[in-house]
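hiii, so i know i said id send this last week but things got crazy w the move. better late than never?? heres the sequnce for the chain we talked about at the cafe, plus the structure i predicted for it. fair warning i was half asleep when i ran it
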Amino acid sequence: MKHNELLGLGITSEHHDNAIVLRVNGEVDLATASDLAHHIEQAVTAAPAAVIVDLSGVSFLASVGMSVLIAARRKACCSTSLVVVASGPTTGRPMHLVGLDAAIPIFTDIDSALESVGSSLRKSVTGASGSSESGAGCPECATGTSTADVHTA
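okay and structure toks below
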C-alpha cells in the first residue's frame, strides 16, 4: 500500500487525447494536499493541453485542497488549461461558495469536462490570431501571477 493510500487519498492518471485526467479518491486535507499538489504539478509539467482534476471520488475537501487547485491554476497559466470535476455537498458546493469557479472551470461530470476541453482546443487551433501557441505574450505567464484571484472567507 502506498503512503498516500494509508492517509486516505488515491490518485490515478489517465490520458485522453491531449489531456491528462487525475482521478482523486478519498480525503483531501492537510495531510494529503501536498500529494495532490505533486500529482497536479507532474501532470502540468508534462505540458498537455489540459489537466482535468476529477474530485468525484473525494469524500472530504479541506480549504488547503482548494488552495492547491488555485496554485495549480496559476502555475498552469496559459500553457495548460486546468479544469475540475466536482459536484455535490462535499466538493462542488464549497468550491462555488468560496468563488473558486470564478478562477477555474468546474464541471459536474467528466464527460462535460472532456467535451469542454476538446472544444477549447479546437478553438485555440483555429483561432483568429492564426497561432496555436498558447501563452504567447500572456502577461500572466510572463510575470507568474494571475489576475484571476479568488478571495475566500
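btw DSSP finds six helices and five strands in the chain. thought thatd interest u
miss u guys!!
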